Fold:
Amino acid sequence: MTRVAVVAGGSEHTGPAVALRLAAGGFDVALLGSEFTSADKTVRRVEEYGRQCIAVRAELTDARSVAAAFGRVRTALSGPVVLVTCVGQRPLPDGLPEDESADEQRYTALRRALRPAFVCCQAGAGQLLHHRRGRIIIVAEPVDAGEKTWRTTEPVLDGLIGFTRSAALELARSGTTVNLVAPADRADDSRAPAHRPAGDDSTGSYADGVAHVTEFLVDERAVGITGQAIRVATARADVPPLRER
Structure:
């Protein structure tokens, strides 16, 4: 039986790492995104595992675009049973005056940061419901870490955690699990100033860690795990430069 996984968004490291791990586990893979910096290479590597892989262009903040992309995936491969959607964190505006205008700017930025996860999960859930054993995994991409950056990205992570729990409850009866994979918080992350995980001598990258966790969460033995935020430590070398769009 063909199993299809959709990997939406992701950096040039995280998305491909997850796609390859899923292919090694027997999934055909569809890559969704508006930018494909290494799609051809990923497609070729997935095909080396004997699996199919397609890249579908979609604007992940636009519900119609994402819905159309899922339609193309279903036509080319089959209905997906796994959705991995990667969310690039962007710090919320900091240093704004405490007034109504500043609050509106922060709210708009938070909404923009969370929208890809909401849009992709909304479109993907409809596809997964047909299988009654779907997996949705939301991945928060790491950002460069400074005290200011950590403080202004925390609301984004809090929003993702809340969304994950709400979606997990809503989809529980359908047999679909929803979990979040995110960078370790300031108390544990080796990127944060003056902190380092005790006994952490791992040389693995954040992308590798996310791929490992994804492999576990899509396994049938993880059917009882849902609504969880799973933290993965990162190293400074893993953190991509933050780019404004």
Helices lie at 14-24, 39-48, 63-76, 100-128, 147-171, 206-217.
